[in-house]
Amino acid sequence: MIADDARGRLAPTGIARLLAFCLLFFLSQASYESLRGTWLSKTVIESLTVTPSAALAAAIAPNIGIHAEGTRIVSPAERLNVLPGCEGAEAFLLLLSGVLCARRSLRITLVGLGLGGLVVFTANIARIVTLFFAALRDRALFGLLHSYLAPLAMTGIALVFFALWLAWSKPDETAAA
Amino acid sequence: MRGQSVDVIVEFDGSAAEREALAMRQARQIAHDDAQIVAARAAQYRRTKAIVEQSVLMGGTAKDAKVIRNYPHLPMAFWRLSSSAALARLRDHPVFRAVYEDRRIYAVQSTPSDLALINQPATVAAGAIGSGTTVEVIDAGIDLTNTVFGTCPSAGAPGCRVVSDQIYYPGTTTDVAHGTNVSGVVAEVAPGTNIAMQNIFNGSSASSTDLISAVDWGISNQSTYNIVAMNMSLGDGGDYTSQCASVGGGGNPLTTPTSLAAAAGIQAVAASGNNAYSSGLNWPACTPGVASVGAVYASNVGSMTYSISPSPCTDPTTTADQVACFSNVASFLTLFAPGVDVTAAGITMTGTSQATPHASGAIATLRARYPKEPLSQALTRLTLTGTDDTRGSISIPRINMLAALDAGAQLVLTGSGPSTAAAGSTSTYTLTVTNTGPLIATDVNVSDALPTLATFLPSSSSSACSASGSTVTCQLALLAVNASASFTITVRWSGSGAVYDTASVSSDQVDPFPSQSSVAFGMAPPDYSYDNTPLPPWSLALMGIGIALLLLHPSRAH
User: Fold this and answer.
1) What radius of gyration do chain B's Cα atoms show?
2) B221 Cβ neighbours under 8 A, 6+ residues apart
3) Which residues pair with B230 in a beta bridge?
């Protein structure tokens, strides 16, 4: 499923690129799932997701006693439990697979992975904080946000970032996928 | 009395100083006299003594009476009286309370291990080593070159655990090995505590006047060194079958000094004596308020015979927790501790002298861990948690340091509060904390996490309550066993709806049943949780398809 490109080197066809993308996503997803319950998963959830989310929520509403307790964002009137899978890892792994299959130079690939991770985790923290305040103030809004609006926003942000990154970068003509 | 003089310890009325000290303690909410209160007491005693001396010594012109020694921090002094008239003038004075004879006392003789029995290693492992405290050892001297006390070019030198070494009779030969071993036991039982040696011995004995001076020194230096216990491995050999209000036909001159030492935060601890009495203790162990300590074996050491006064005694067999035959016991004995073949500071000795510093070291450990507790609670911890050792019909607790350290106070929190809020109105939460014991609770904190809609109203709430953010804290310095305290917290609502409030109570003490130390009002909000796919499958699929299309798009991918 590979063919010579214009310069006579091997280059993936569209189907091969799609298969590589799918394979990479499922492999990375399976690898991450196998790490559930380990220090890495705990660090991603508690230190990289819950703690900054609680800090951001506390900064927005400093007088209602919001703080992090393990995997929970806690206030006297509301608790939000961030379980494994809520940390935005799947979205990041999709983005990671796309970046790795885009056939760019190593430097641009690393920029894509770094910035992509930052964008996904920041968007996820914003999503969690939004959900927390929605649960605190308006539980009907919480359902709407949780089921439709927040996932759609996350998808949109990830795709916009990926499109901008592709447009900004140029294909690495010397690299083979 | 004509033609001869008599030296007596005189006690005056100290009630005015006691009232003043009590008022100052209450105003400052402290359990014991601090340096200012000790100084205030001393000033009051000075005024009282000046009045007596003006009257009885006739302004210093009397030839038949004089003050030999003053005890500045006690309502007491040591006087020499040379006539019956002087004694009459003294006794007739309105502030006169008592005279006591000057008694001879001796180091409780030691005759030719123990930390594990009292659970000391586990206590040290728990981080309780008596740091920041000092035990005053009233004994026959100390060998500062012994390395158990650190590096001691002199007492008080940096790196030296002996902070003071006062010798009352320099140049006389005393049983320094006894004082060194006793101090060594304290140093090993409580590896973080310091030693203050008061060597009151003149040869093989000491006098009660010097003993009182040593107690006076302890009170005056309590705040300097944080002295928490006063070890007296000494006695008069007497067989006192009840707590001794009187000794030798007179009053007990140590009752007031040890009582004032306790007020200053110093627990007096004394050896029960090595006379094999089955229902009596030596003085000063028999003094009310003094913790008396008898000796037990720490292990099986085979058959043991002891040459003691008034007659030898033998234990044909021995085992851990067996009361040693030489140890005096009585129904009012406070504690047992190991006292046979006790090696400390490289010296091995046996006797109630060696059992006593185990108790002093344990008290130092407990005072360091629980400094806000009343002094008496250190002894309560030891007596409440000790393992009972028995001789005849008398059972007395043997020290268990770890159990004493872990003893606690069960706090039960109850109360009432609203479950709904109406914007602009006020509501009151009432919280009641009850201490069901077994120990007094100190530094009691009731913490209430108010609902988001609530604003704390300090003017309508209990004065002991204050708010930080949305958390209200109500504080109580001390809560006695079986006592309760109630707090009211008034709030104003900024919105309407269901409200949920949680409160909990904590103290310095271990709570054996913490589940009863919290309470909630209203209905708990649901615990919103995401499942394992917080981003729905459709969103992930959409994201995946989007990325794939972008990858395949010729203008972007190539």
Assistant:
1) 31
2) B164, B196, B227
3) B136, B268
Say yes or no for a CB contact (<8 Å) between B452 and A77. Answer: yes
DSSP string, B371-398: TTS-HHHHHHHHHHHSEEEEETTEEEEE
Query: In sequence order, what are the beta bridge partners of B138?
Result: B198, B232
The torsion angles phi and psi of B346, rounded to 5 degrees, stand at 75, 10
User: Is B488 buried (19+), middle (13-18) or exposed (0-12) by CB count in 10 A?
Assistant: middle
Residue B276 and residue B52: Cα distance in Å, rounded? 44
pLDDT at res. B558: 47
**Distance (Å, whole) CA B227 – CA B360:** 11
Tokens 């615990």 belong to which residue?
B527
How far is residue A156 from each of residues A113, A121, A150, measured CA to CA in Å?
Answer: 17, 14, 10
Could you list the beta-strand ranges (E) of B112-253. Answer: 134-139, 162-167, 194-199, 205-207, 227-232, 234-235, 246-247, 250-251
Q: Evaluate the CA torsion angle B542, B544, B547, B548 in order and state its sign.
A: negative
DSSP string covering A108-177: HHHHHHHHHHHHHHHHHHHHHHHHHHHHHH-HHHHHHIIIIIHHHHHHHHHHHHHHHHHHHS---TT---
Helix (H) or strand (E) holding B259: helix B255-263
* d(C-alpha B382, C-alpha B360), whole Å: 11
Q: Return all residues near A54 (Cβ < 8 A) that are at least 6 apart.
A: A66, A67, A68, A73, A74
Query: Smallest Cβ distance to A147: which of B451, B500, B536?
Result: B536
In this prediction, residue B358 carries a pLDDT of 97
Residues of A in contact with B417 (CB under 8 A): none
Cβ within 8 Å, pair A155-B546 = yes
Tell me the one-letter amino acid at A140: A
**Cα B268 to chain centroid, rounded:** 10
**Helices and strands of chain B, counted as H and E runs:** 12, 34
> Is A158 within 8 Å of B543 when comparing Cβ atoms?
yes
Q: What single string gives the DSSP state of each residue in B414-442?
A: EEE--SEE-TT-EEEEEEEEEEEEES-EE
- Coil, strand or helix: which one is B254? coil
- This prediction has a pTM of 0.71
Distance set, CA B479 to CA B223, B377, B440 (Å): 25, 13, 6
pLDDT in single tens digits along all 177 residues of chain A: 333 343 434 455 777 888 888 898 889 888 888 887 788 888 888 888 889 998 998 888 876 667 787 788 877 667 788 877 777 888 888 889 988 888 888 899 999 999 999 998 899 899 889 888 887 777 678 778 888 888 888 889 988 999 999 888 876 555 443
Going from the C-alpha of A40 to that of each of A45, A88, A112, B444, B530, the distances in angstroms are 9, 14, 22, 40, 20
Q: What band does B3 get if pLDDT is binned at 50, 70 and 90? A: low
> A-chain residues within 8 Å CB-CB of B452?
64, 75-78, 136
- Give the chain A residue nearest B531 (alpha carbons): A83
Q: What is the predicted pLDDT for the residue at B445?
A: 94
Could you say which of A82, A154, A162 has the minimum Cβ distance to residue B547?
A162
If we measure between CA atoms, which residue out of B198, B202, B194 comes closest to residue B213? B198
CB contact under 8 Å between B500 and A76, yes or no, is: yes
Percent over 90 (pLDDT), chain B: 64
Q: Which residue has the tokens 């008396």?
A: B292
ipTM value greater than 0.90: no
* Tokens matching residue A10: 């091997």
**CA gap B458, B489 in Å, rounded:** 8
Q: Measured between CB atoms, which of B469, B532, B544 is closest to A94?
A: B544
Q: Which of B533, B547, B557 sits opposite A94 (nearest CB)?
A: B547
Q: Which two tokens stand for residue A174?
A: 């010397």
Asked if residues B457 and B491 have their Cβ atoms less than 8 Å apart, the reply is yes
Q: B528, A79: Cβ pair inside 8 Å?
A: yes
